[in-house]
Fold:
Amino acid sequence: MPELPEVETIARNLRTGNGDLPALPGLRVRQVELLWDRSLATPSPQEFRGRLTGQRVEQIWRRGKFLVLTLSRDHLLIHLRMSGDLLVERVEDPIAPHHRMMIDFDVPYRLSFNDPRKFGRVWLVDDPQVVFRSLGPEPLSEEFTAQSLYRSLSERRRQLKPLLLDQGFIAGLGNIYADEALFRAGLHPLLASDQVSEQQALRLWESIRLVLEEGILRNGASIDWVYRGGDYQNYFRVYQRTGDPCPVCGTPVARMVVGQRGTHYCPQCQPLPSQSL
DNA sequence: ACGAGCGCCTGTCGGC
DNA sequence: TGCCGACAGGCGCTCG
Structure:
């Protein structure tokens, strides 16, 4: 579901609010309702309710696909996985069918975690690094450079597609942006990472940053039945465009399954050198 | 070290 | 219309 640009968009919206709905920073938690216990990674529901109540929201930020609320004493981490969403609602709004958690504030508004597929998880921890330790670099940060990407690619021998989805390799890419980045870079999803040249690594680095920045600019993508306000779905080059002409060369976009994930690419623009299989 | 397969869940869509 | 399989923005686990 939400990848880096969608989570970034949600973080920005929660941080600033909009005309009708309040910004979260500054609000104090009055009450916590947990409607599906397994949405909670840690701690126990009892401890979660007790510890969260009374804390004030200080800051809202993002690490990879994790949304982070820095509170007076703890950090609330939220991972939306495939179908999760966060909504600011009035307390009198009806409880929607797939709400899993509701956090009421000291104003008549609440933050609702809605998640049809129940894959999403919430952590309440004092130190977020415990959860973030295994994450790779932030792709839009200065520490992520073409050189560091080239080095990391060379150190492993992995198919590019699963490697880009590996959050320990790079944090924030998901199925959409991995396919779009590989297309922009002209690299086949199955190409072995240690076969990527320095030139190709530079192009992949540029492509990753480009598609993520475009995604953020468009407020993320809204697809299937989950509408989040963004319109990047109208700018996909290959993702879920099987059979459509490649925007560069006109060859029909192909689909294959890699690591159990649907993978979309242009067979002409993203050739696979025969020796790499 | 790496990849494949499966489990976790609910909803939508296309084919018969 | 109803049923059934395929598929969906993720990730952790086991097993070779």
Q: What stands out?
A: Chain A has a mean pLDDT of 96.
